[in-house]
Amino acid sequence: MSSQTDQQVLDNIRKQKHLKVLNTMQWTFPMQRVEIHMNTVIRSQMDVLMKMMLKIFNRLDIKAAVEISELLSVEMIFIEHMLILLERSEMIEKEQGIYRLTANGTAQLEAGTFTHEPVEETMEVTYSPFHQRVLKRQDEQETVGRPKEMATYRYETTSELSSFEKQDDVQVKQMIEDSGYEFLVEEGQKLINDILSLDVKDVVQARCFEIHLHDQTDDTVYIQVWNTWTARFDERFEEELNRKEASELRERLVSSKGKGTKPDN
For position 92, what pLDDT does the model report? Predict the structure, then answer.
C-alpha cells in the first residue's frame, strides 16, 4: 500500500541530486490507545472581592457575613456566596466562632491566585512503547487497522517501559503535556492535580515508509523513515536502523557495483 504522501516524500528527496534511492519498504508499529482519568484544577487570578475578604479575615475578628457586607458595602448574597466558596476551598475556617485564614488561604493570598475545586476529566493519548512517549497524531494522516499484507517493525521493543501503565505519575503528566493537551483556558491555567487511573483500551497500528539512500557526495548509505502518524521523519527509528543495518547496506551497494548492476532511482 503506497500513498500520495509516500510519493511526495520521494519527490522531495529526489530534488537533492546527490541522493539516490536504493530501496523502499513499508511496515507498521504498534501503539497503545490509552484513556487517562485525572483530577484537574484551574488556577486563576484572584478577584477583588475574594482578595479583600481574605485580607479582612487576616486582620480582623469576623464572626458573620453581615460584618463583611457592612465593611465593604457589598450585598449579602455576594458575601455569602464567597464565604461558601472559600470554606469549600479550605482557604478559611472558623475557630471559636471567628473566621481565620488557613495555611492554604494564606499561601493563595500571598500568590494572588485562586485554585478552583478539582474536576475529574478523561482524555485519550496514543503511546508508542518503542519511542517511550506519546506521539501526537497530525490531522488528516492515515491510520492503519491490522493489514495482513503489511509487515510489522522488525525489531522488538525490550524496554521496561513497554507499557504506558508502567509509567509513574510524573512521566504521565509530562506525556500529557507533550500530547498537546490545552492547559490555557478562559478562566486561567489548568493544572493536573492527580492521575486517577490509566486504561489501555486497545492497540493501534501506524505505518512507516522506509527509504534506503546513497549519498553520492561522500559515498555513504543510510536509512530514513517517514512516520505517517506524526507526518515527519522519525529519528528514533532511523537511529536504530542505521546502527544495525547501514553497514550491510553499504556492503550490498559495493557488491552491486562490482557486478555492474545499478540500484533504481
Answer: 94
Locate all alpha helices (DSSP H) within the chain, ordered by sequence: 4-14, 48-59, 65-72, 76-88, 103-111, 169-178, 235-258
Q: Band the pLDDT of 186: cuts 50, 70, 90.
A: confident
User: What residue segments make up the domains of the chain, in order of their start?
Assistant: 4-38+119-258, 47-111
Classify 62 in phi/psi space as left (phi over 0), alpha (psi -120 to 50) or beta: beta
Residue found under cell 502518524: 229
To the question of domain 47-111 being in CATH 1.10.10.10, the answer is yes
Q: By 3-state DSSP, what share of the chain in percent is helix, strand and coil, each rounded to 5?
A: 35, 35, 30
d(CA 103, CA 109): 10
How far is residue 249 CA from its own chain's centroid? 36
The three-class DSSP label of residue 81 is helix
Helix (H, G, I), strand (E, B) or coil at 18: coil
**32 close to 162: Cβ distance less than 8 angstroms:** no
Average pLDDT over residues 141-151: 64
H helices, E strands: number in the chain: 7, 11
- Lowest mean pLDDT of 163-177, 192-206, 250-264, name the range: 250-264
Rounded CA-CA distance 126/238 in Å is 21
Q: Mean pLDDT over all residues of the chain?
A: 88
The reported pTM is 0.76
